[in-house]
Amino acid sequence: MRAGTRPTTDRPRAARGSRQFLFFTDTEHGRREARAFLERLKERTDRRDKAISLTSFRAQLKAIHRWGLQPPADLSRIRQPVLVANGESDRMVPSENTLDLAARLPRGELVPLYPDAGHGGIFQFHDEFVARALAFLEARPDT
Question: pTM of this prediction?
Fold first, then answer.
């Protein structure tokens, strides 16, 4: 997480919604894609994920904080192919970390960072990402 990162608007974060703030950019395009994503979420009416409990949420934040303080892990032992994707303006995981991750994985394959996209880049560019992910998986039937 970036220290000192601020929203690019004067509207309070809660007024915009946490999903929109964390996953999408605060541009006309980002806001439009956030609305479309939230509408797509409503399409699935059965077998939906349960809401996270406050205890689990706090534990997750604590783990993320601890992880952020650690030195980078040795990824050279990971031999599986890995598809790495992100938006170019991620507030949760700095986009530079995505580039670093792909570079340190021996078989990392980087999807070019999605433009005008945050942590939800794969939701914002879902058609492109699904096609890329399927091609990635189909090219590796034995892994």
Answer: 0.74
